[in-house]
Amino acid sequence: MSGLAAEAGAINLGQGFPDDEGPDDIRAAAAQAIVNGPNQYPPMMGVPELRQAVATHADRFYGMGLDWQSQVLITSGATEALAASLGALLKPGDEAILIEPFFDTYLPVIEAAGATAQCVALHPPNWTLELDELEAAFSDKTKLILLNTPHNPLGRVFSHSDLVAIADACIRHDVVAVCDEVYEHMVFDGMQHTPLITLPGMSDRTVRIQSAGKIFSLTGWKVGFISGSADLVSLISKAHQNLVFTTPPGLQIGVAYGLGKDDAFFTEQSGDLASKRDILRAGLEAIGFDISPCQGTYFLTADIRPLAGDEQDIDFCKRITTEAKVAAVPISAFYAPNSNHKSHHFIRFCFCKQPAVLEEACNRLSHYLR
């Protein structure tokens, strides 16, 4: 969709990246580190400054008390963190539970490891998780569950009761949880992000993945973090060593500086995103879309049926990109190819853009669809 948006000259509300360049002081810290060095290979686990900063951040916000030397690993983005984690933990014949819809990296990496995905659906319009369906997905072959909260593409924050149920199932079935928490600081309306690793019984069986690209709107830097028990982090570090070995040291030092920013930075960032969400939501609802609740992330999910009837989401997205000059992403792209739960009438809009851009996108869609 991004390629089609560029070709059509459309406003790109499809791919999830901000339209600014990130905080000036964090970029300046990284630039200074590149000038001053070091610029040779940093430690494979990550520079000490960043690993310490990740541990301090986890303690400040969640009381986690990590040992930075044995429980923190720096990766080349959350995508590499996922690849290293799934590659280290899965072998041929294993099963991994995915919650549909899911970020499109998950399934190919699971299959590349020779494992099989067992999918559990979230049910629209509120995208609820049915606990009996979750329980039925576990078997004696289940090695891990991959949980994404706040959730891309739906903007859903899993409730405490959902997390407790997932944790209980992991403990009963002796399963590891790999938690994609890259949108942890993008929660709205008084919601709170709770890392699954902080729940009773989960500290030794949870891998937590974070992203500096999302936290600081620096998606091109590709700096991610893994934390968990020393045994799990040690195992995953061996896969990381053979994937990329390490991550640019200057960027790591810049991110370490950023994680030390005061609480107001993170609160203001969340508030700014919530205001942009509200601009886009109001504009889309005025046009006639049905909008699902959005509790976090960069994304709004819209039901196209009031405007497009039975038209497929892919066809609708292509049409508005080329004709209305506004790009979105079909939610059906976030399901397994053979999924029985795939919906074809929801699309995802990204709102981490300047207010004027969001308003112009709504104006274009309104003019075209009316």
TrEMBL record:
<dbReference type="GO" id="GO:0005737">
    <property type="term" value="C:cytoplasm"/>
</dbReference>
<keyword id="KW-0808">Transferase</keyword>
<dbReference type="InterPro" id="IPR004839">
    <property type="entry name" value="Aminotransferase_I/II_large"/>
</dbReference>
<comment type="similarity">
    <text>Belongs to the class-I pyridoxal-phosphate-dependent aminotransferase family.</text>
</comment>
<feature type="domain" description="Aminotransferase class I/classII large">
    <location>
        <begin position="11"/>
        <end position="365"/>
    </location>
</feature>
<dbReference type="Pfam" id="PF00155">
    <property type="entry name" value="Aminotran_1_2"/>
</dbReference>
<dbReference type="GO" id="GO:0016212">
    <property type="term" value="F:kynurenine-oxoglutarate transaminase activity"/>
</dbReference>
<protein>
    <submittedName>
        <fullName>Aspartate aminotransferase</fullName>
        <ecNumber>2.6.1.1</ecNumber>
    </submittedName>
</protein>
<dbReference type="InterPro" id="IPR015424">
    <property type="entry name" value="PyrdxlP-dep_Trfase"/>
</dbReference>
<dbReference type="InterPro" id="IPR015421">
    <property type="entry name" value="PyrdxlP-dep_Trfase_major"/>
</dbReference>
<dbReference type="GO" id="GO:0004069">
    <property type="term" value="F:L-aspartate:2-oxoglutarate aminotransferase activity"/>
</dbReference>
<dbReference type="InterPro" id="IPR015422">
    <property type="entry name" value="PyrdxlP-dep_Trfase_small"/>
</dbReference>
<dbReference type="GO" id="GO:0030170">
    <property type="term" value="F:pyridoxal phosphate binding"/>
</dbReference>
<dbReference type="InterPro" id="IPR051326">
    <property type="entry name" value="Kynurenine-oxoglutarate_AT"/>
</dbReference>
<keyword id="KW-0663">Pyridoxal phosphate</keyword>
<keyword id="KW-0032">Aminotransferase</keyword>
